[in-house]
Fold:
Amino acid sequence: MKNAPRISLRGFTLIELLTAMLILSLLALMSYRGLGAVLDAREHITRETDKWRQMSSFFARFERDIQLASPRPVRSASGIAPAWLGRLATTSGPRLEFSRFGSAEGVDMPRRLAYQLNEKQEVELWLWPGLDVATDAQPARYPVLAGVTKFELQYLDVNFAWVDIWPASPRDTPIPQAVQLHIVLVSGEEIVRVFALNS
Structure:
């Protein structure tokens, strides 16, 4: 009579188990790092998208305001102010102040407004209640763009020369031909935009 063949039941050795665990831990580590990189990239893209969306919104607002610029001077606490008043950054008062017509849609009225860079590195929009302001009238101030280190403006005169203040001479028109806006962000980007005016 023949004996039944013996079946050898052999398991994994300790070396084989440790090697498998090492390979699995390396795969898990690579997956974790890859997922971390994807999440970091997603967060960076979200921040950049928000930043450029705010920039686009600011430029649209600024362009809309200057397109409605009015050549009408206004009465103020200090006398008559020109329709368009562009100051140097070293002087007191907002960097740009001008009169604006109401929009064609009728959603806002004619008023005096201004743009200024404040100490919190925000571009502020100043809104007075109307065109001719009372001596004690203070503008409402709204931050419209954050994270700005430099906010410079230049104005194109009738001789097609860029000037830093407006009016630069008594011969200047009430409103410049165009405005050049130069912004430097906290993150280092420089943006220069030129806007033509309906002067």
Q: What stands out?
A: The helical segments are 14-67. The mean pLDDT is 86.
